[in-house]
Amino acid sequence: MSHKHQTLGEFIIENQAAFKYSSGELSRLINSIRLAAKVVNHEVNKAGLVDIIGAAGETNIQGEDQQKLDVLANDKFIQTLTNRNIVCGIASEEEDDFISINSQDENNQNKYVVLIDPLDGSSNIDVNVSVGTIFSVYRRVTPVGTPVTIEDFLQKGNQQVAAGYVVYGTSTMLVYTTGAGVNGFTLNPAIGTFYLSHPNMEFPLDGNIYSVNEGNYIHFPQGIKDYIKYCQKEEGDRPYTSRYIGSLVSDFHRNMIKGGIYMYPKCSPKTNGKLRLLYECNPMAFLAEQANGKASDGYTRIMDIQPTELHERVPFLCGSRNMVEKAEEFIQLADPK
Ligand code: AHG
Ligand code: MN
Ligand code: MN
Known about the structure:
The protein is of the alpha+beta class. The chain folds into 2 domains: 8-198, Fructose-1,6-Bisphosphatase, Chain A, domain 1 (2-Layer Sandwich); 209-334, 3-Layer(aba) Sandwich (D-Maltodextrin-Binding Protein, domain 2), CATH 3.40.190.80. Helix content is 31%, strand content 20%. It has helices spanning 8-16, 25-45, 50-53, 69-83, 150-153, 222-232, 248-258, 277-290, 321-334; strands at residues 89-92, 99-100, 112-120, 131-139, 162-168, 172-177, 182-188, 193-198, 209-211, 241-242, 261-264, 293-296, 316-320. Helix 6 (222-232) links the parallel strand 9 (209-211) and strand 10. Helix 1 (8-16) runs antiparallel to helix 2 (25-45), helix 2 packs antiparallel against helix 4 (69-83) and helix 6 crosses helix 9 (321-334). The chain is globular and about 60 Å long. 44% of the residues are buried. The structure holds 2,5-anhydro-1,6-di-O-phosphono-D-glucitol and manganese (II) ion (2 copies). Residues 117, 120, 248, 280 line the site of one manganese (II) ion.
């Protein structure tokens, strides 16, 4: 079938057979995410009406409590995945601990766990700037029919079976991979259908955009400072352009289309930056690699890092392959390990 006018629903069915563990379960899971994304999209689009329909913490005209959008997005994704009995466990950036689904029910034969950042870039909501949702899917490692354990969630990123994001931007897009490239779908809001608009997305090998919160410059490791100076130097195709939205999903999306590097380095010797390995870095790393890009912490491939706790953070460099490798060179030169 030609790509023209292909819907996400059709795409999922058509590509199901190509997935190596194909049983329809993963397709149902992606379908649930598609549904939750539409619901959250609807809520995000109403954010600007908050003064009229009530702010978080208030009670609305129907007597319902208004929730903050990140809490609401969290609830919608968890509800959708739980109600449809599609996964056996969920971990979310918004929850302290993982959630075990139907742990008492031996008939729950679901194999997959989902990890989500329900609303990424949430500080951008109030100012009408794009936000997103990030998700990551693994096969459980403990036996089916038993309650999930922390082991099911602390898997290396290289074990992911699917990952993706939704960007609630000038248009709403769902971009995902199941390990056979990256495809992007744009929502037609009039009829609530996602269409394949960006087949086989790829990072250009090189780019001229660097994305980093330069306000933290003084705290960056020397190698990052050196790389930023390199980006700003007048030589060859440099200086590069600086673009930083402050929503990882949006910064990544732009860089994948135009070519660029995103960095969230350590901001002091004691911390590991801000981004979470499980909810943000691993899914973005899987997408990046599937799109011919690269993701590392400056020394190690992100997807090869063994997680030790649910909410851990890692320094994150991600984007066009040649740019990430150049940044790694500077980091390793300044601070060999
Ligand atoms: P979240 O809204 O899920 O907490 O994530 C925000 C993240 C990421 O999206 C963004 O790139 C980064 O935080 C921005 O952080 P700074 O404001 O420190 O630059
Ligand atoms: Mn986030
Ligand atoms: Mn978040």
